[in-house]
Amino acid sequence: MKKILVIGSINLDILAKTDHIPVEGETVIADHGGQFRGGKGANQAYAIAKLGGCVSMLGAVGTDDAGEYVLQGLIDVGADVKNIRKVCEEPTGQAWITINKHGNNTITVLPGANSFVDISYIESMKDVISKSDIIIMQLEIPRETVLHAAVMAKKLGKIVILDPAPAAADLPHDLFANVDYIKPNESELELLTGSSVSEYMEGAELLLNKGVKNVIVSLGSQGVYCHCAGKTPFHRPAYKVDAVDATAAGDTFLAGFSLSLAKGECIESSIDFAQKAASVTVTRLGAQSSMPTIAEINYL
Predict the structure, then answer these.
(1) Choice among 80, 180, 245, 251 that is catalytic
(2) pTM for the full predicted model
(3) What's the structural domain count of the chain?
């Protein structure tokens, strides 16, 4: 099995479940909630490890109780965290998540220590990157760090996977040119390309034109659309479940997809496995706490 390295964010999530997501100036009372381990990078590393993958993580936490708490979660599932940076200048990153009765959410993120995942840190971890096979990144750490790591990884002959969240319209062209797989959802694709949500096929083609090798667009209940360079585009259906919380569904999908690639599976099989994994996650509350085991996926 190929070795996976996740470079990304580590957060403490503060979650509240409400009847509806409040609009500007509105106060709502939550039915229930709590604190959970999160951060897109940590979520993806956690999910890969929980599914039995060989995964290490690069990132940063504060020297606070939250940092110890989120790292322990990764340790508990077998992720390698020995190279995660601890900084005293900032607290561990935090995210405030509001979930409505339909399982949809809004998320506000305070980066905190995640801002210390900088270029000098990546340079110091070049040996770690060189010993990995698949490099996964997101956009909750500084963009210049993501670009630097992507360029370094491709020069070293690695597979680079990008989860472009939170998405932005002004990502550098060099980043796309150094990405093998990109996985936006519909709204992220719209921000990345300017195409409307309904024109996701056109948006995927625009990303290919920017230099990305393979584009995987998650369409929620409509499944997944994939457009790979040199291949006929195709859809894969979603698994029908009663969604409770969409938090970390995308992270679980990316983890399942990456793990399947690491095992040598084709892109179609990898997407199907990822869909199964995400379908379990949305039936439970929280981020890492909702992620499945391999046994749960095989049961579907």
Answers:
(1) 251
(2) 0.92
(3) 1
